[in-house]
Amino acid sequence: MGTDRAQVLPAPRVRAAGHRRLGVTAWRLIALGMILGAWHVASIPAGALLLPSPLAVAPQFVALLRSGELLAATASSLTVLFSGYSLAILTGVSLGVLMGGIRPFGETLEIFVHAMNSTPRVAFIPLIVLWFGLGIKAKVVIVWLTAVFPILINTYVGVQNTDWGLIEAARSFGARQSQVFRHIMLPSALPYVVTGLRIGAALAVIGTVVAELYTALTGLGHLLALFGNTFQTAKYFVPVVTLLLIGTAISESLKALERRAARWKSTTVEF
Amino acid sequence: MTTIPKIDVRAVGKWFGRGDQGQAAGIEVLRDVTFAVMPGEFVCLVGPSGCGKTTLLRMMSGLIPIDRGQILIDGTRPPVPGPHAGFVFQSYRLLPWRTVLDNVRFPLEIQGKDAAEQRQRAATYIRMVGLAGFEQRYPHELSGGMQQRVGLARALAMGPEILFMDEPFAALDAQTREFMQIALSRIWEANRVTVVFVTHSLDEALFLADRVILMRPRPGAVEEVLAVPLPRPRWTYDFHARSEFVALRAHLWERIRRMVADQPEFAWLLGGPGDDEAHGQLRPV
Lengths: 271, 285
Ligand SMILES: Nc1ncnc2c1ncn2[C@@H]1O[C@H](COP(=O)(O)OP(=O)(O)OP(=O)(O)O)[C@@H](O)[C@H]1O
Ligand SMILES: [Mg+2]
Description:
The complex is a heterodimer.
Chain A: H1 4-7, H2 14-46, H3 54-67, H4 69-101, H5 103-117, H6 125-132, H7 136-160, H8 164-172, H9 177-214, H10 219-229, H11 233-261, H12 266-270
Chain B: E1 7-16, E2 27-37, E3 42-46, H1 53-60, E4 68-73, E5 85-88, H2 100-110, H3 115-128, H4 144-157, E6 162-166, H5 174-191, E7 194-198, H6 202-208, E8 211-216, E9 221-227, H7 243-262, H8 264-270
Parallel strand pairs in B: 3-7, 3-8, 5-6, 6-7
Antiparallel strand pairs in B: 1-2, 1-4, 8-9
Helix pairs in contact in B: 2-3, 2-4, 3-4, 7-8
The complex binds adenosine-5'-triphosphate and magnesium ion.
Residues 16-17, 29, 49-55 of chain B line the site of adenosine-5'-triphosphate (ATP).
């Protein structure tokens, strides 16, 4: 079989991709520098009240970090964020799998899911407060409600889009329905699920701040309200930047997961 | 000497789209199909598109229910999908997220074989189809011919008694296809599994088969069963030059041409009844 080697596509060029990634990182740092520079320049005519320079924000960041205030607030926010988000993953993925795997069940619930997904979740906050109070329970429910639908819908679509031919192949080897679920439907839905998780994560961060502002003031939301209402603008930017960092960290780690989940797709190999 | 057929198809009928409205509402796809496949025999099913070859294969493997008649495996049991019967599909149907090794292992995993045995058997059959060294590749990294050899290895690794193959080489280029036909013949000569092979290529059918079953459409039924009395192994001599091959091929070709000509939508092409002015110039002189 001398020709076989020639027929194989070239192996993914990991080294080249590595170099490129380094290049992108460098460019990103340059872009960050330019944004900070523009911010600084804009802050000169605007004044410290309207737009403090990043040079004024940085010491506040350090100060709040030193006092422990920032860490405590971040820890409290992350607790709410991850509780709600985990709950959303657990319920979203299981319900999505069931809806995708059991046709009539999915077809029945689909319309309700889409109805909920297109209703602004803020509309439910007074009800949630009424039912769960102002404490952490209510906050977790709010985060869950903001994040669950993209996860559910993506999982559902992923399972639904399973190649029917693969299911028949598995059945021809004697696979039981549960094995078809586990070995065919779930892995083929995985890239969709991870995309859902990424969208859900971004929404969960939003949900966390909304929850902290609309119920008892805690965490980073509390800092936002505190510094915002008292016009301590330089300090106000500290929780904002922290939220930015949290969002980026989550989204980047999920992107890495997404690449892994779809590594068998030819499209991921080509770049 | 065994006289019990491996697969006994008895007066089988099939309807589609019947719903609850009785047989009249659906399409009769197969009617009164009867034939037997003996243990270790290589049978090819040929016939015009839509005559129910795939449907028949699905029923023989227990993937879809039989509406009329019955199919018996080993003369006793109705078909049920499982390790005793391997399936090879035209579109390969490999799991794209699994490597070659893990694809071939898959049916063994389903059966709950222990990991060591899975690996060892998968490796054996990967070698048999000439893919040693490609165990860790993903399907999209392989050519079509290689993917189909993975499909073949996957079916063989289960240790099946029957192999169902539905136009397995139809998507391959002519050269790869010929290579695959020889590879399959070699493997079959070595382990004599019972094969039911669907193809549209008369050359392929005559090269591979002990017997060719010709089917007719609307509703699908057996038209004729032909023995292929050419000596094996057939890749060792100029098979296509043999007078038996030429005669059988001409006979089958003529039968299929007539069947197609009997269908109104193709009649104009072949100058049968029903052609019209507009297509007049296509009529053979
Ligand atoms: N699931 C189904 N529902 C309704 N009709 C079907 C179904 N499967 C097959 N048919 C019909 O049954 C007939 C036979 O189909 P089948 O796929 O068995 O033909 P075939 O001989 O394999 O054709 P080809 O050579 O094109 O593969 C066709 O008319 C097809 O439209
Ligand atoms: Mg077919």
